Amino acid sequence: MKSKLTRPELSWILYDVANSAFTMLVATTIPILFRSLAEANGVDSAHASGMWGLVTSAAVLILAVMSPILGALADYENMKKRLFVLFLTIGVCGLLGLCVTQDWMAYMLLFVVARVGYSACNVFYDSMLTDITTDERMDRISSYGYAWGYIGSCVPFIIGILLIFVKPFGLDTLTATQLSFLITAVWWVGMTIPLLKNVKQVHYLENRQDKVSHAFRRIGITLKKISKDKKLLSFIIAYFCYIDGVYTIISMATTYGGEVGIGQTDMILALLLTQFVAFPCAILSGVLAEKIGSLKLIRFFIAVYACVCVFAFQMSHAWEFWVMAVVVGMAQGGIQSLSRAYFGKLIPKEESNEYFGFFDIFGKFADFFGPLIVSFCAFALGSSRYGVLALILLFIIGFVLLSKISVNGSQEEQA
After folding, report:
1. Mean pLDDT in residue range 173-179
2. How far is residue 222's CA from residue 375's CA, in Å, rounded to a whole number?
3. How far apart are the first and last CA of the chain?
4. In sequence order, what DSSP letters do the residues of 88-155 get, joined into one string?
5. What does the pLDDT look like over 96-123, one tens digit per residue?
């Protein structure tokens, strides 16, 4: 990519910096505080892991049901940004609620609100990739988004961690943690402003009075199109499988680490290291994808994650969590950004939001089943270890399906 970033491209990238700060909380201090509140009310460690898995599944299931209709509605002229702002407000309000509650059950409910708002925004945000750049630049721009999101999210996170560890002004741990949530909410809103000013909906369908009923009819039509497009269908099913494991590892990392005895400080610092490792690796993924192909790199990252599952199964020491954090950082940005960009190349641009709605529903249903698997093992077997190991099957299925796509008629080059 020889030319400089355009203003819409840069503004789009900055939103990844905005929302990744919330993602850091989801992976670290939000579940840690939940565990603390739950255990203070007599909930044992394994059941706390199981309950967090269930509430995570509930949040993603809600959005999975909503995604197709939201995506279909957003394809009409000027609708994408309106819906984006609506769910941004919902997500931020949920996060602000987490700043004040000390009731562990209310905490779970507010987390669902924040998670649904955040995830719905991403449906519209991902589809904006087709509005702000070309197919030739898509791998690189998508990778830049994840890369700068990783490094940028560290700013509010580090400020928050310093508050928690140093406890200035006589703050206790609970107040310092909730203040870190407030800082993240302000960061989220502030870094979103450039996108609201500079990103326009270039590809759209003309407005009509029966948008809602027409959107539902279009969902059925799009499902038929996807079912007939073998390459697109195979990729979506593969994505459903491997991203299940990826999202579960992200969302359950600190909960699982706490269960197997890893200290909170080690987990937080190790996951911070993940962000710094992910930054250059995500950018490198975009560069390599232009040379060797997106699907080859995605398959490589899937193999890395399969190894992570085996490693996490036997994990019991803090240094092992640090090693896992580094390895995940090397693969996380690449597998997410290249999957998003590859899908963006396959779909019709004027219906990008609807297609990304289906893309997101597969991702969200995946994120529903992964934590559910871990929760089932926690409740039934008394440990989450077997649930983490079971995720390897999802990576294997995803790898095999992607291998068939790339073998059949050099389809990667046709994307």
Report:
1. 94
2. 34
3. 18
4. HHHHHHHHHHHTT---HHHHHHHHHHHHHHHHHHHHHHHHTHHHHS-HHHHHHHHHHHHHHHHHHTHH
5. 999 999 999 999 999 999 999 998 898 8
HSE (CB half, 13 Å, CA atoms) of 40?
11
Q: Cα separation of 249 and 349, whole Å?
A: 32
- Asked whether the beta carbons of 385 and 265 are under 8 A apart, the reply is no
How far, in Å, CA of 121 to CA of 74, rounded? 11
- Classify the C-alpha dihedral 331-17-294-368 as positive or negative: positive
Alpha-carbon gap, residue 321 to 177, rounded angstroms: 22
Report in angstroms the alpha-carbon separations of 405 from 42, 140, 229, 296. Answer: 50, 22, 12, 11
Tokens of 186: 């302000």
- Residue 232 has a pLDDT of 87
Give pLDDT, residue 302. Answer: 95
In this predicted structure, the answer to whether residue 374 has a pLDDT above a threshold of 70 is yes
Q: In the structure, what pLDDT confidence band is assigned to residue 397 with cuts at 50, 70 and 90?
A: very high
Residue 408: strand, helix, or coil: coil
Domains for the chain: give ranges and CATH numbers: 7-197+210-414 (1.20.1250.20)
Cα angle at 19 between 320 and 162, to 5 degrees? 55
